[in-house]
Amino acid sequence: ISRFDSGLTVAIEPPELEMRVAILMKKAQAENVTVPEEVAFFVAKHLRSNVRELEGALRKILAYSNFHGKEITIEVTREALKDLLTVQNRQISVENIQKTCADFYNIKVADMYSKKRPANIARPRQIAMYLAKELTQKSLPEIGELFGGRDHTTV
Length: 155
Hints:
Elements lengths: L16 H14 L6 H10 L4 H18 L5 H7 L1 H8 L4 H11 L5 H4 L5 H17 L4 H7 L9
């Protein structure tokens, strides 16, 4: 056993909505700027992935507000973040991921749900499950169910 094998593996989940709002408010306070709570809530609701994304969005809003000489409102925020929000609004479904992976690896979509275990089927299925976890808001049990009733530990 190597010394790396004895380490602790921990999954770091994105912060919850309330935590994202609090982070935005604290970051704005650190910049000596007052951001209305409804603006922080709007940003936190639409940007979910991580703290860096929230910080970047806040910087973008502040820069846009300063450059245009406008007070920070939801409308100004929407305009400042329009490129980020359009990317976020493009929903990626598990079904779309399954179809794309199946097409790429030249297997049938039905193989994604099957119990077959050959490497040419299992590997694309594993990749599709990983992408579903990373690119959707689905829980591990939900993803497992969409892949033929697999257990969340498999996902």
